[in-house]
UniProtKB/TrEMBL annotation, chains A, B:
This is Magnesium transporter. Residues 31-134 form the Magnesium transporter MgtE intracellular domain. It comes from Alteromonas confluentis. GO terms for molecular function: monoatomic cation transmembrane transporter activity. Belongs to the SLC41A transporter family.
Length: 445, 445
């Protein structure tokens, strides 16, 4: 590990101010691809482009592969076509798969022609799968031998070349179907004439090309192997998934979840151009505006009441926010449970009952506290009772919505991490305002 | 891979209803530890305990290790002391480190005594580090040889036993300091008399015991190695971090971030007892209530205005929520940047300027749209201008707060993922209400 990234970023920024970036560029070029990508993403656009131009050409594709799409596309747009022809000289199918969503079609054509025949075949094969299927992400460099091979054959294979993340040799039958795997370390201890089938691993996990990307990657992370074989529907060995790819895919999935909670995607650039960034976020603001106007419309139905009891207007945020928080707690728990496969038809009822009880208990406690505070603040016992009931109603409906909503969205194939919270707060806002102002109309006028 | 987990959970629940759980238990016991842990976490408490009791005793500690604290503690409380004595028979320091926060002290004593002398030493060593230092999580099973060893020595070592996730042999000098590492696959190709120092890896990354857990784990994930050596301040080889531990630590960190956004921790149990669950969530509701009352108090300063212009009360949620959403987008982006080490002193100013411009642009656009809608809805151009200005002020201050707040919290060593959003929405609520009602007081009365 060279110097920590924040230091490097600071040096780049300050050297740029001194107009002598050469020294820092040399330091940067000694870092690994991921670190260079991270540093580039941290730089304002102009400095990012000038730093990019100063990188050694043979690193550029590998660095681009490690970047998020938005900051990456800024560099792609800034690179002239003559440079691309040279950069693509050694490109492989795996890198092109990572870049395909960012490259304009003329560059895709250029890059595809630069692949050799086998790499072109790998590329075509991978693009038969969506990026949520593990078949899209497999690598083809692997140790594989026929099922009747002996330790001697394995040793010869290993001495030639061992691709990274190889801790096993895959054995296939004549039709290329996966049969079994042998640990490399077993091979070294064994006499040369022993058939490999005598050394195979019991219960070797096997992935299918159509397996969900995140599920398959988590399975590999847990398995303790450095890579797992990936087969097609006919059990034919198609390639393998390795731990570095798996952890990238898992981490990306988590990042997507975190960013989705604010209506952004994981490719959002720290320094994207202002217009683009504003556009990216405008949709979420717009959706939210519609839900806010909807809530306002419900409040508007009680204009007369508000005019007479202005305390209701003062306390509205309390009712809405308690429901929103209680609901989002339930929602977050259920969304995680769905992602882990822990929330199912079988335990749904039990879960709902438990969340209702938790909501009821917290509802009663906070309703009473808030009721007392409100009645003292506005010297009105009736107002205290009204807000008390409204809070109780809102927290309990929030719990119900928090359980039902994500399960429903999941059934409809809508990501509950993205749209769950905006729908939930719409529900809790409206239920809260209507309960509070409705009860106020009944009991306070 | 046996059957998918949701099926297994459903079978367990329905078999329990038929009062014949034996068959499903056999299926469950054939799964790996993580899957069993996941299934147990998905079961309502009583069924969870009865399923747990039916598991083979020699799997129980390994399954407990894979569970989250809250659901795990329910099983710990339900297990009699006589059973523990038998379960602890083969426990190792690493498992005990995972369980130490969940076990009551009498069970900790019992387990510690069951460790052999070396394991006790490992345990003591690890507990010198907090769980945010990688020294807490290292394993001690490793391939290590003196710096002057030859290929012959390496082959002898490997034939004896290769711990999982070993793709390198560590070389140490006489004082036990880490000197270099050699790839296992290099050893196999080389003649027996070659000194290992001739085969060493250039630029092998080395972790320090005091490195941050997540940073070190991410570094290993990227390195492409199956494990990395971990040294102390004097460069003494203390152990190693392997990819399975690293991915568990990284995934746990992401989960903590997701759960923190709703004020929960990652150990929250789907089926924790109602009282416990209500208590866990009450603190967050309470904090939120204080901020809601604070917002109400600010609204209360404008009671007179609200009474005269009730439309202000109707539109309050629109102003507050647009600021909240815009601010949380900036906040989420900056929190991720901080976590990745991408937000630093050097680029802070540039980031702030960019977010201000994005906020300004979205602020102007949405302020005009909302101003038009409001003036048409309430047939009042003045009201339209008031809400237009209030939205603009609120979205721009939200952008500022979204940049400053997480950086400030990070400096104060407070997790911005946990407390950022609650403070941010307090700011945007108050700024929104005061701007809207204040401008309303000035221009509409």
């Amino acid at each position: 590990m060279a110097e920590p990234l924040p230091d490097l970023i600071e040096e780049l920024v300050s050297d740029a101010q001194n107009e002598d970036p050469a020294a820092v560029l040399t330091t940067l070029a000694s870092e690994d691809d991921v670190s260079i990508a991270t540093v580039l993403e941290s730089l304002p656009v102009e400095l990012r482009i000038s730093t990019w131009e100063g990188l050694p050409r043979d690193r550029k594709i590998d660095v681009l592969v490690e970047m998020r799409s938005d900051p990456r596309e800024i560099l792609i747009d800034a690179t002239p076509d003559t440079e691309w022809a040279l950069m693509f000289a050694d490109i492989e199918a795996e890198s092109l798969l990572e870049l395909m969503d960012s490259l304009p079609s003329r560059l895709m054509d250029l890059a595809f022609k630069a692949l050799d025949e086998q790499q072109q075949a790998f590329f075509r094969e991978a693009t038969q799968f969506t990026d949520s299927e593990i078949g899209h992400w497999i690598s083809h460099e692997q140790l594989a031998l026929p099922i009747n091979a002996k330790v001697r054959d394995a040793l010869r294979l290993i001495r030639r070349n061992v691709p990274s993340h190889s801790d096993t040799i895959f054995l296939t039958n004549r039709s290329g179907q996966f049969s079994a795997a042998v640990k490399l370390t077993k091979v070294f201890g064994a006499p040369e004439h022993v058939p490999l089938v005598e050394l195979t691993i019991e219960n070797m996990p096997v992935l299918k090309v159509t397996d969900d990307t995140t599920v398959a990657s988590l399975q590999l992370q847990r398995s303790g192997f450095a890579s797992l074989p990936v087969v097609d529907d006919n059990n034919k060995l198609m390639g393998r998934l390795d731990v570095t790819s798996a952890s990238e895919l898992v981490n990306e999935n988590y990042e997507r979840q975190v960013m989705a909670s604010a209506g952004m995607d994981e490719d959002e650039d720290l320094f994207s151009p202002v217009a683009k960034s504003a556009r990216n976020r405008a949709l979420w603001l717009g959706i939210n505006l519609l839900t806010a106007f909807l809530a306002s419309w419900f409040i508007g139905m009680f204009e007369g009441t508000l005019q007479q009891v202005v305390a209701l207007a003062v306390l509205m945020p309390v009712v809405a926010s308690m429901g929103g928080i209680a609901g989002s707690q339930t929602l977050t728990l259920i969304v995680r449970g769905l992602a882990l496969g822990q929330v199912t038809k079988a335990n749904f009822r039990a879960l709902m009952m438990k969340e209702l009880k938790v909501g009821g208990l917290n509802g009663v406690i906070w309703a009473i506290i808030i009721g007392i505070v409100a009645s003292v603040w506005f010297s009105s016992a009736a107002l205290g009772i009204v807000i008390c009931l409204a809070i109780l109603v809102n927290i309990v409906s929030a719990a119900l919505a928090g359980v039902f909503l994500p399960v429903l969205l999941d059934k409809l194939k809508i990501d509950p991490a993205l749209s769950g919270s905006v729908i939930l707060t719409t529900v809790t806002d409206i239920v809260g305002f209507v309960a509070f102002l409705g009860l106020g109309t009944l009991f306070l006028l």
